Amino acid sequence: MHRRLFAGALGASVLAAPVVRAQVFDRPIRLIVPFAPGGTSDILARILGPSVGRQIGQNVVVENRAGAAGNVGADFVAKSAPDGSTVLLIDTGALATAPSLYQRLSFDPANDLAPVNLLIYAPYLLAVHPSVSANTPQELAALAKARPQALNVANSGVGGATHLTSLVLAQHWGAELTQVPYRGGAAALTAVSAGESQMLVNGATATSPFVRDGRLKGIAVTGARRFADFPNLPTFAELGWPGAEAGTFQGVLVRAGTPAVLVNKLDEAFRNAMAEPDNARRLADIGAETQSLGPDAFRSWMVRETEQWGRVVRANNIRLD
Q1: What is the C-alpha to C-alpha distance for residues 307 and 321, in angstroms, rounded to an integer?
Q2: What percent of the chain is modeled with pLDDT above 90?
Q3: Cα dihedral value 207, 161, 92, 109, nearest 10
Q4: Residues 6+ apart with CB under 8 A from 142
Q5: Would you call 198 helix, strand, or coil by DSSP?
Q6: What is the CATH number of domain 27-121+247-315?
Q7: Digit-coded pLDDT (tens) for 32-87
Q8: Could you tell me which SUPFAM superfamilies the record lists for this protein (predicted)?
Q9: Is residue 278 packed enough to be buried (19+ CB in 10 Å), middle (13-18) or exposed (0-12)?
Q10: What are the extents of the domains in the chain?
């Protein structure tokens, strides 16, 4: 009311200027990966980042802000300016488990972050160090039950989806295995390949090269079908194991309150980037299955995932504060 009464032509243009700026990307994009380099989120960011930059006419700079199972980087984005220039690329399992794990979480995933696109799904790959005597799923389950002290399980952080999946799996085997948390999947992979820990469940995207070159020994995979690179490895479903549908779901989010036009432009840019032939080939090569759920579908999916993982966290009485 007051603006219409008192703003002249010059005042109106000044008032309109922030709205105009909010509709375009006017600075480089910081693509925040809340895990260490070398993990699935990092690999995906570096594949798609250049193409997204071309789509929106800005450079995309990948920044790794690891810590607290993804919460450090997620909090950084949740507290950034709502202008679309700071973007989170994360394994959404970290966001789905956080509300149940932390009473004093420094941000609210549901209200402080706005979904942009659920990019890809990649199955988990259960692998062990080559020194582990078990070569089949049945042998590994028997070893875990008979000699649990022989298997320390590396995970990407306490309460993360890989931790919870391996925890439920060990319970199914009737084994109490020692869980060893690391700062992200890349660090967990390094630890198991070095023999520091003996077993892990981790995204196939990042884990496959370690199995391919013999640094790790593949045992089984999650997902609806056998992994193309390792057709001899059975699925959890074939084995009757829990967690058959688990895997790494990688998504992109921005600060809540970011104008819808910018959210939609980012959604479109990531969709187009994944569809580029070279990127599509690279994603297929690392076992990624395109999901490409837009903002509304992604939000609904996150609600369901948060409820599902919350039940697992509560059933195992896991709290981190």
Answers
A1: 20
A2: 73
A3: -150
A4: 134
A5: coil
A6: 3.40.190.150
A7: 999 989 888 999 999 999 999 999 999 999 999 998 888 999 999 999 999 999 99
A8: Periplasmic binding protein-like II (SSF53850)
A9: exposed
A10: 27-121+247-315, 123-239
